[in-house]
Amino acid sequence: MNTIEEIDVNQLLRLRESGQSHDLIDIRMPGEVMQGLIPGARHIAMKHLPAAMEELRQSDRVILYCRSGSRSAHACAALMAQGLDNVFNLRGGILAWAQSGQPLAEN
């Protein structure tokens, strides 16, 4: 099995500033997303990721996040097992994003 590639908040910020194509996916439960999400992210609950596989395959880069990075790491592994090779985990999840002083958007 391949190693899950991770990016941290600073790498995500640089990626966004550079304008490189990517999809930022919040995989948390709907109740968690109501507390806010990373601006520009879209919500696809973890259990709905398999239904989005074909769409995700079209992306140059898929970055998943959850609350702390644990569930999204598992989701990355599951997507990689299905042949998706352009998937990254946001290390520390939305907690790391908020702790670095970055804003949250309302859902």
Question: How would the blueprint of this fold be written?
Answer:
Blueprint: E1 5-7, H1 9-18, E2 23-26, H2 30-33, E3 42-43, H3 53-57, E4 62-65, H4 70-81, E5 87-90, H5 93-99
What does this structure look like?
The chain has one domain: Oxidized Rhodanese, domain 1, CATH 3.40.250.10. It is globular. The chain has 5 helices and 5 strands, in the order βαβαβαβαβα. The chain is α/β, with parallel strands linked by helices and 107 residues long.
Q: What would you say the CATH architecture is?
A: 3-Layer(aba) Sandwich
Report mean pLDDT, rounded to a whole number. 95
Strand order of the largest sheet: 1-5-4-2-3
Q: Identify the overall geometry.
A: globular
Largest sheet: 5 strands, parallel
Radius of gyration: 13 Å
Structural class: alpha/beta
Distance between the termini: 35 Å
CATH topology assignment: Oxidized Rhodanese, domain 1
Helix content: 25-40%
Task: Give a summary of the structure in a few sentences.
The chain is α/β, with parallel strands linked by helices and 107 residues long. The protein has helices spanning 9-18, 30-33, 53-57, 70-81, 93-99, and strands at residues 5-7, 23-26, 42-43, 62-65, 87-90. The chain has one domain: Oxidized Rhodanese, domain 1.
